[in-house]
Amino acid sequence: MLSTKAWKLLWLKRMKTTLPDPPPSMLWTYRELAKLGGWKDTKRTGRASVKVLWQGWLKLQAIPEGYELAQSLETNL
């Protein structure tokens, strides 16, 4: 579902620990995207809305862009 760079950056942003050897599961990706979009699971259903998932997806798209921008600035300075 996510590129290698995207899931690694998502992991580092959300978990703040070293990267796991195998990529995380789809359930982990679903939940972390939802949390990034503001989902709190207050009703304890385990299901996030499409709107929240899209908000998380859009925030996730900014993370690799920011990472790549920081890398290019670092090499140009």
Overview of this protein structure:
The chain is mostly helical and 77 residues long. The protein has one domain (4-11, 24-39, 46-76). 65% of the residues lie in helices and 0% in strands. The protein has helices at 4-15, 26-36, 50-76. Helix 2 packs across helix 3.
Summarize the structure.
By secondary structure, the chain is an all-alpha fold.
How are the SSEs ordered, and which strands pair?
Elements: H1 4-15, H2 26-36, H3 50-76
* Through-space gap between termini: 34 Å
What's the number of helices? 3
Structural class: mainly alpha
Number of strands: 0
Taken from the alpha-carbon principal axes, the silhouette is globular
N-to-C order of helices and strands: HHH
Query: What do the pLDDT scores average to?
Result: 90
